[in-house]
Every structure is written in C-alpha cells, then in structure tokens.
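tl;dr need the bound structure. longer version: we got a ligand (UFG) that a collaborator sent over and nobodys looked at where it sits. i said id run it. heres the input, straight from their email, havent touched it
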Amino acid sequence: MNILVTGGAGFIGSHTLIELYAAGHTAVVIDNLSNSNPVALKRVAEIIGIKNIPFYKVDIRDREGLEKVFEEHQFDACIHFAGLKAVGESVEKPWEYYDNNIGGTLTLLDVMRKHGCKNIIFSSSATVYGDPAEIPITENCPKGQCTNPYGWTKSMLEQVLMDMQKADPEWNVVLLRYFNPVGAHPSGRIGENPNGIPNNLMPYITQVAVGKRKELGVFGNDYDTPDGTGVRDYIHVVDLADAHVCALKALERKCGLGIFNVGTGHGYSVLDMVKVFIRVNRVDVPYSIKPRRAGDIATCYCNPSKAESELGWKAKYGIEEMVRDSWNWQRQNPEGYNEE
Ligand code: NAD
Ligand code: UFG
C-alpha cells in the first residue's frame, strides 16, 4: 500500500516508516517540523536503504498544501500521527491545541474524502480513559474525564472519526490507543528527541544518565501502588510501530471501525524503571522524591488481548530491551538530532 504518514518525522512516525517499508509498503511524509528534525527522515532512509523518504513540509491545517500532496500521489491509507502532545503546554495554550489537533485533523479528513482516501489509522492515547474505571483497561472500559486539553483533543477526535465512519461506511477507521511508548530503534540512529526539558519519564532518565540533567524528580511516592510511585504500561516504540502495520491489514480487510489498546499489559512503577535502567545499562541515575504532578493517576495498564486476537499483534519486547534501546540512542546522540 502507499501510505500518507502525517507527523512522520516525529518519534513514533519515524519508527513506523521503517516497519512500513520492511512490510513492503511505501510512504509519503507530511510534517510541519514543529516538533521534529528532518535529520530523522534522512536516517530512516539510511536504515531502510533507500535514497530518501518522499517528504513535504506541510501543516495539516494548510488545505492547499494538502491538496497539492493528494494531487501528486494516490494513497491507499493515512496513518495520522501529526499533533501536539505536551500535556502541560496544552493547559497553558488550549486554543493552540484545539486548533492544531482538531482543526488540522478536520482539514485532513476533508481533503482525504475529497480524494477518495477513506482509510485511516489514528494515534489515540490511553489518556482517553481518564482515571480508568477498571485495571487492566480493556477497550470496553468507558472513556473518562480528561485532565487536560491535549487529552480532550484525542477523545473528541475519536468521536469525530467514529461518527464519520458511521455516516459513511466506506470509511475504515482504526483508533490505536497507545500506552507509554519508550525505547528506540536498536541501531541507535533514531529515537525520542524532545525539545527542552523532557515531560516524560524515559527521556528524563536518559538525560540524567548522560549528564545533561542533575537528577530525576520522582513525582510522588504516596500513590496506592506497590512502591507508592506511578505505574504505567511502557511499550517499545518498535512494537508500537509494528501495530500500525497490523492495523493496515485490518483496513485492507475493510474492518469498518476498530478500537485497540496498544500496550504490553504489564505495569511498571517509576522506581522499577529507574532500577531496571541502572541494572541493564550500568549507569547511575540519581533521583529524589518530589510532590505529585497535577493530573497524574496512580495506575494505568491495559489488557492488550483484543489487538492480538483481531489484529494478530502482540508486543515482542520487554522492559530490558526498552531501557537498553533508549540508552543506546541517548548515548550515541547526547544532543539528539541537533548534532547533525
Ligand atoms: P512527535 O511530536 O514526536 O511527533 C508528532 C509530529 O507531528 C512531529 O514531527 C510534529 O512536527 C508533527 N506535527 C505537529 N503538528 C503538526 C501539524 N499541524 N502539521 C503537520 N505536522 C505536525 O510525537 P510522537 O510521540 O511521535 O506522537 C505521535 C502521535 O502519537 C501524536 O498524535 C501523539 O499525540 C500520539 N501519542 C503519543 C504518545 C507518546 O507518549 N509519545 C502517547 C499517546 C499518543
Ligand atoms: N514521572 C516522574 N518524573 C518525571 C516524569 C514522569 O516521576 O520527570 C512519572 C509520572 O508521574 C508518571 C510516570 O512517570 O507516574 C509516567 O509519566 P510520563 O509523563 O512519562 O507519562 P504519562 O503516563 O503521564 O503520559 C504519557 C503521555 C500522554 C499519554 C499517556 C498515555 O505523556 O500524552 O502517556 O499514553 F496520553
């Protein structure tokens, strides 16, 4: 299939491109580079062994720009990663998040249908469950109250896509609810490259380990969890990338609407992550306990069996590969892509 990959220069998009080509697909990337670096695409092409990945620096809110791409290419499906994703920033700048994520997606969907491309995989998030009503979380768990505008954009866009698919069954829509993506391509050539101070746990740990930051703040040790720190379902980004390849097969089978959790089904605490990172990579990660972070929940991990039975997808990598590959990337690229 020929796939339009929005946000393809980003963390998950860049890893997905590699798995797409490995499975025999081709891709065209659009990205406005607001949170990514074109060096990532250069390195993706190197790993795949092609000259370059077709790329357009286009914003998904730019209808004319999108039209031009659709006029030049015929797409079988779109994998839609493009979006802003910083939870804290979304609280400060709600309009920017609704405009970019919702406005951009509405424009993209309109251009897609105009050009007869009605197959989409959407990057959703465990955040749509809010404080989850059940653990492990199945797809039947009711969606919850999001604690920030970013989360609402995901929840609302799921609704938009479900309503469009219901009104026009020619659409095939797969909503992938990612849990906590970490890790990097085993080559260490591509990985997560956050701007400024990392919001997420794993890039913070790797930046402490490489000496860019003094110590990790552990946000709360008084949660109702085995060691008091927050528990999450971390998933290797290569496994997550592979889930998109499996989801494409569902689109080919004309699946209608499909909603899937993408996680491993295992929960690890913040201190588990720190300890495994230190043990596997033999590097120190100083940390201290800090107050809870606003909006955080105690425990979040999923039951991923629906993705296994319906998509034939299951995570292959465990926590040790996740911390090893995260560190391999950071160690080889202490300044991320900025070095090149
Ligand atoms: P990322 O920021 O690395 O990648 C997103 C890409 O989209 C970036 O390259 C950015 O430049 C681009 N982009 C943003 N707005 C755009 C616009 N208006 N037009 C064109 N390009 C635009 O993030 P990621 O971690 O790779 O996440 C990919 C998707 O998965 C996002 O939609 C994110 O919300 C979702 N998601 C991520 C996580 C996570 O923890 N990383 C968890 C759940 C869901
Ligand atoms: N944490 C720390 N210190 C840090 C960063 C995080 O202790 O410096 C803790 C958090 O309190 C939490 C855990 O590490 O207990 C994981 O935090 P992350 O910020 O890495 O991830 P979240 O689960 O909070 O959220 C992430 C994404 C969301 C997404 C969600 C579910 O940021 O966008 O996973 O997919 F919605």
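gonna send this back to them w/ a short note. The pocket of nicotinamide-adenine-dinucleotide (ligand 1) is lined by residues 7, 9-13, 31-36, 59-61, 81-85, 100, 104, 123, 125, 178, 180-181 (CB under 6 Å).
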